[in-house]
Amino acid sequence: MSGAGRLSAQIGIVVGIFLAWEAAVQTGVANPRIVPPPSQVLPMALAMLGDPEVLHHLWITSAQVMLAFVLVAPLGVAIGLLLGESDYFGRAFKPFFYFVASVPKSVFLPVFILAFGIGFTQKVAFGMFQAIFVLVISAIAAADSVSADYLKMARAYGASRRQIYQDIYLPAMLPVIVEGLRLGMIFNITGVLFAEMYVSRAGLGHLVANWGMSFEMVKLFAGILLAAVLSIAVNESLRWYEKRIGAWRG
Amino acid sequence: MTDLAGATREAGDREPKRPLIGPYLLRMLCLLAILAFWELAPRMEWVSPVMLAPLSATVVTGVSEIGLFAGNLAVTVGSLLLALAIAIGGGAVAGLLLGGIKALRETLLPIMSSIYAVPLVVVYPVFTAWVGIGAESKVLFGGIYGFFPMLLATAAGIQTVDTRYMIAARSMGASRRQQIIHIMLPAALPSIVSGVRIGAAMTAIGVVVAEMMAATAGIGFLITQNRTMFNTAEVYFGVFLVLLLAGVIDWAVRSLERRAGAWYPHKVKML
Question: Residue B169 belongs to what domain range?
Fold first, then answer.
């Protein structure tokens, strides 16, 4: 199947799902009070993007996600590179990070509430906590992915330290690190939304949880649609970048 | 090779000096420091006892209320087992279909891997609105949470089947059924089992997270209930039990993995 054919098939599938959903409600197979039809959900989602109150909550969620990401990205990558490059620290602390990375971290949310309260800081701290371990692990993998043969070759031809970093280390490590950043970002978004749904006074997660409790199904579905579209957009753009800078690997 | 590596070693790092403490010892010392901090910080009031209950108080409280914790843990495990059936069973079947059939692999599978990026927590209110805050919503949510990783791992496993084996089997007249049973399934098994490991862990997280948000029983519910009452020691003990549960699941799947590994000839390298 060609690239364009594949894409149109995929668009067809997504459109088909929405049409089937609409048809199920219109024909009475699904109860519109339980499963609101797309003809109500899609306009509601668009209206929300013009609603100052929803935008305010959306902005708070985005600010928490972005601040957590900006803080955790350099920290996680730095720790990972230190552990990957230094044999001593690597042997001392790698097992610790591998272990904690495999542990379910969502369950620590109540601990963050006890420590930081229920405000902005707690959401940012929890988002960072969700993201940091996958960042560290991928930065360790990035450090390991630098080919010893390329290094030998570069040194043999008298490459300077700067050239070695710029032309060997960076291209080798960047795709792996960006993959880690992408996964970290997903975990970060999930963590912030979960924290907002759990206990919060603001944010998209707070709105979604409230709409669920008050059975406002159209708003609930529209909110979920917004969260889904935004996180898919973030994920796909990072994935596109990852592919582009990793293209040299073939 | 060794002398070449030696010759190209950077001038700076000749023979590394022996560090004062070995890496293993350093790790153990850090672990000890964390445990000591956990015990001492709340006792000496370096941090508020609401934030952190001393290690000893956590253990004592947990043990004294072990019946309560065990009862709620049993509720969680019950939901988890049902959710696992959805996640592992459904994920494996969907993964075999989406990975094994070319048209689906090229169209639906990428959509599934995009959906995997969606923070599924936001869907939980839909389940509570549909089926209430009882065990059903936990089973559904946990099942969906583990379904996607299971699906993707199974589909990836099916794709890695060496086409030369398939061609050989087909040219020797193997039926479609024989191809699936004797080639595709055994070759995909390692990926499927690693999918089970990730999927089972995610299912457990899903069930506990759902219990934390809205429930009437279960270990996640117990944690949340104690958090609202500022019973810090109970919260920490509950978290510890969830980690223990995750550890037990991981151990169980790993021993399953070893058995599957013993059956599947790893030494035949699949190119």
Answer: 65-263
Query: For residue range A10-30, what is the model confidence (pLDDT) as tens digits?
Result: 899 999 999 999 999 999 888
Best of A31, A89, A106, A107 to mutate (most B CBs within 10 Å, chain B): A107
Q: How far apart are CA B220 and CA B229, in angstroms?
A: 15
- Residue B10 domain flag: no
How far away is chain B from the Cα of A61, in angstroms, using its nearest Cα? 13
The dihedrals phi and psi of A223, each to the nearest 5 degrees, come to -65, -40
Closest-CA residue in chain A for B249?
A103
B110 contacts A10? CB cut-off 8 A: yes
> Domain A37-249, CATH 1.10.3720.10 — does that match?
yes
d(CA A187, CA A130): 6
Say if residues A69 and A184 touch (Cβ distance below 8 Å). yes
Whether residue A90 is predicted with pLDDT greater than 70 in this model: the reply is yes
Q: Is residue B7 part of a domain?
A: no
Instruction: Identify whether residues B200 and B135 lie together within a single domain.
Output: yes
Question: Which residues of chain B fall below pLDDT 50?
Answer: 1-12, 266-271
The DSSP letter of residue B184 is I
Residue B208 near residue A106 (C-beta atoms within 8 A): yes
Instruction: Give A111's contacts (C-beta < 8 A, 6+ positions apart).
Output: B235, B236, B239
Q: Which residue of B has its CA nearest to A148?
A: B5
Q: Is residue B2 part of a domain?
A: no
Whether A13 and B213 lie within 8 Å, measured CB to CB: no
Of B27, B52, B77, the one marking the end of a domain is B52
Number of structural domains found in chain B: 2
Q: Is B60 part of any domain?
A: no
Q: Which amino acid is at B14?
A: R
For testing contact with chain B, the best of A31, A114, A122, A152 (most B CBs within 10 A): A114
In single-letter form, the type of residue at position B197 comes to R
pLDDT of residue A1: 57
For A60-89, b where at least 16 C-beta lie within 10 A, e where not — what string? bbeebbebbbebbbeebbebbbbbbeeeeb
Mark whether B92 and B189 lie in a shared domain: yes
Nearest CA in chain B to A235: B117
Q: Nearest chain B residue to A190 by CA: give it.
A: B119
The nearest alpha carbon in chain B to A230 belongs to B118
**pLDDT score at B15:** 56
Give which of B9, B73, B116, B122 to mutate to test A binding, by max A Cβ within 10 Å: B122
Tell if the CB–CB gap between B27 and A111 is shorter than 8 Å.
Answer: no
CATH number reported for the structural domain that contains residue B110 in this entry: 1.10.3720.10
Could you say which of A104, A208, A235 has the minimum Cβ distance to residue B201?
A104
Burial grade of B37 (CB within 10 A; 0-12, 13-18, 19 or more): middle
B124 in contact with A, Cβ within 8 Å: yes
Nearest one of B98, B84, B83 to B153, comparing CA atoms: B98
Of B8, B110, B130, the CB nearest to A152: B8
